[in-house]
């Protein structure tokens, strides 16, 4: 996942079958993120132009006026990254894979992004290798 501005600036040349490649990232490393077939088919354009139009303002408008959700100014992509990370982990995702998807150089940053619901802490009991001795 990336900042909103990076996503809006993505060009078709960065899209390959079921993957998006980010270049010139904050960590100075290119990052390729897998995407679903459905998303690929939705955003693929056989041109070299941008994949997306400017959509941050309309997105925030819909959040506020249709859904009643107000985010602090400039925080939509930040909140979405945290939400994605939390749900990725709650669905059984691997923290190392999440680190790569989010583009973090340090796993400790990923751990800050991946908040857990309290019920998921009980998973520590069921997955404990000593529990079945």
In short:
The chain has 133 residues and is mostly helical. The protein contains seven helices and three strands, in the order αβββαααααα.
Could you list some keywords that capture this structure?
3 strands; single chain; 2 domains; 7 helices; mainly alpha; three-stranded antiparallel beta sheet; 133 residues; 44% helix
Protein described:
It comes from Vibrio mimicus VM603. Keywords: DNA integration, DNA recombination. The chain has 133 residues and is mainly α. Helices cover 44% and strands 8% of the residues. It folds into 2 domains: 1-54, no CATH class; 74-133, no CATH class. The protein has helices at 4-8, 37-43, 56-67, 76-90, 95-102, 107-113, 123-126; strands spanning 15-16, 19-22, 31-34. The N and C termini lie far apart (41 Å). The model has no long low-confidence stretch (mean pLDDT 83). A hairpin with an 8-residue loop joins β2 (19-22) and β3. Strands 1-2-3 form a 3-stranded antiparallel beta sheet, with no helix packed on it. The protein is globular and about 60 Å long.
